[in-house]
């Protein structure tokens, strides 16, 4: 063999040896058992009617201390351009849990003793996680409906008259229902293993519901408390069945204790948990407990926000007590902007719950749906990070399904986008180009980049107080539609529709295209 051929043969043998070594190593790696990475627990804290400007960490002018939420933001990611699907309760909750724009199905809230908004076997976040081995629990406010007709006694045929504001209405009395029966189509029907709460703080029935049954049968019809008025604003109560001596002031402390107990009970659990903690606060009636009064400089509402922040702290302390905080994704957000009482707080306390936005709850302006959003996951999400990515609460379904390796139904298309890469790497690469804003059927807005288009000359639904209207900075609308550049005008002060007709045309067409889509069929 020549020296040249010998060298060639040795070279081939070396390559062959390396190839065999790589294959052997790969085989060893395949046969070697891999350590199972535990799935993260998940907590979603969902505040009720808390404005973007209430959190001290994102509004230096806030008159409300929020130490636990500020700390949560310092330890996690603060998303500054996050939105609820609607400017009111029910649609936003439906959208968050279903990963679907609410307006594809409805716009209104579930009224007193109303039906469920979910379709049978609808894909939901709790159902997806439950299928993936999660213990799923909902605590607090529901406001998504139940099948109350299933427990109504058909032999009771006489309704009773009750006052609702200035109107007199007819409702079924407490005795018209069989309270020993299970109430169908509640939280357990969409994938939650357990539920505890009062349904909705200002809607009947006024009793605790555990899983799918009332813990105590209502015996009277509550119309309006005769004593102990709400500390700010109105009671906002709907008349209906109630247990005797129902105490509204006990609702927030009770659901907080239940959540703490739930967390502590997970210490020896072998499966991960998902807790949907829907606070009844700071929604009206505004009723902070005595030990929290005077803790803010924004009146009783500010004290109620402070108490809500304290409740978050208690639950997070319980998480640390069982050494589960390192592997738990904690999310805090709100279902919409602050109630119309926010206007009087500007005058009385120099506190703007919507700061720096225009509008409040119900409005299609930013103040109605641009909400706080914080997410923390130690060792995965960079502490103290901020993201200005356009984000919707409907994106939680896809994002959490991705992070937990939960399987979505094959071929399912959602309105929900996957933001896991944003959370884990804080990338600036845009995930969502557009988002549709809506509360009521007559008014829609669409956001694309810095531009926002409203298909109406008025983005309000909530009536503005005369004193605010007379002194406000907004010009009277002349155009039939509105266009804003939020990069230059986050407060939506100047309507640019007449200056940029092509942009109006472009966004109007984009809105129409979104409305015509049907992205999700069950």
From TrEMBL:
GO MF: arylsulfatase activity; metal ion binding
Signal sequence interval, chain numbering: 1-28
EC number: 3.1.6.1
Gene3D superfamilies linked to this entry: 3.30.1120.10, Alkaline Phosphatase, subunit A (3.40.720.10)
Domain of life: Bacteria
Family, as annotated: Belongs to the sulfatase family.
PANTHER family: ARYLSULFATASE FAMILY MEMBER (PTHR42693), ENDO-4-O-SULFATASE (PTHR42693:SF53)
Protein name according to UniProt: Arylsulfatase
């Amino acid at each position: 063999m020549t020296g040249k051929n010998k060298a060639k043969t040795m070279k081939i043998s070396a390559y062959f040896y390396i190839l065999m070594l790589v294959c052997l190593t790969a085989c060893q790696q395949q046969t070697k058992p891999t350590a199972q990475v535990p799935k993260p627990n998940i907590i979603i804290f969902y505040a009720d009617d808390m404005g973007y400007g209430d959190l001290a960490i994102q509004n230096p002018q806030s008159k409300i201390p929020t130490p636990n939420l500020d700390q949560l933001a310092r330890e996690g990611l603060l998303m500054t351009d996050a939105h609820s699907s609607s400017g009111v309760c029910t649609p936003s909750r439906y959208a968050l849990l279903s990963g679907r724009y609410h307006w594809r199905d409805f716009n209104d809230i579930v009224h007193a003793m109303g039906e469920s908004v979910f379709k049978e076997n609808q894909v939901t976040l709790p159902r997806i996680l439950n299928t993936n081995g999660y213990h799923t629990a909902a605590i607090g406010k529901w406001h998504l409906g139940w099948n109350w007709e299933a427990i109504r006694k058909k032999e009771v045929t006489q309704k009773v008259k009750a006052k609702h504001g200035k109107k007199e209405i007819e409702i079924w009395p407490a005795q018209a229902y069989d309270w020993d029966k299970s109430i169908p189509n509640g939280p357990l029907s969409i994938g939650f293993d357990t539920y505890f709460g009062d349904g909705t703080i200002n809607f009947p029935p006024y009793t605790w519901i555990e899983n799918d049954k009332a813990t105590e049968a209502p015996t009277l019809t509550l119309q309006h408390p005769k004593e102990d008025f709400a500390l700010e604003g109105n009671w906002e109560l709907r008349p209906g069945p109630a247990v005797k001596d129902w105490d509204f002031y006990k609702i927030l402390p009770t659901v907080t204790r239940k959540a703490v107990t739930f967390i502590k009970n997970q210490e020896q659990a072998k499966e991960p948990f998902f807790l949907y903690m829907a606070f009844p606060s700071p929604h009206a009636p505004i009723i902070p407990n005595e030990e929290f009064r005077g803790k803010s400089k924004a009146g009783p509402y500010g004290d109620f926000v402070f108490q809500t922040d304290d409740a978050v702290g208690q639950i997070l302390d319980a998480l640390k007590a069982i050494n589960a905080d390192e592997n738990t994704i904690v999310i805090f957000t709100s279902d919409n902007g602050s109630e119309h009482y926010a206007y009087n707080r500007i005058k009385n306390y120099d506190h703007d719950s919507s700061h720096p936005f225009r509008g409040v709850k119900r409005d299609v302006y930013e103040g109605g749906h641009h909400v706080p959003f914080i997410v923390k996951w130690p060792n995965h999400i960079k502490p103290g990070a901020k993201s200005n990515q356009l984000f919707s609460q409907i994106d939680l379904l896809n994002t959490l399904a991705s992070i937990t390796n939960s399987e979505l139904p094959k071929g399912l298309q959602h309105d929900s986008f996957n933001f896991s890469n944003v959370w884990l790497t804080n990338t600036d690469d845009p995930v969502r180009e557009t988002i549709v804003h809506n509360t009521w059927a007559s008014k829609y807005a669409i956001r694309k980049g810095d531009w926002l288009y409203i298909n109406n000359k008025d983005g309000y639904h909530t009536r503005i107080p005369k004193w605010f209207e007379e002194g406000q900075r907004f010009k009277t609308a002349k155009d039939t539609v509105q266009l804003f550049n939020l990069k230059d005008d986050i407060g939506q002060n100047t309507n640019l529709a007449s200056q940029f007709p092509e942009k109006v045309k472009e966004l109007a067409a984009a809105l129409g295209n979104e409305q015509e889509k049907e992205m999700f069929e069950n």
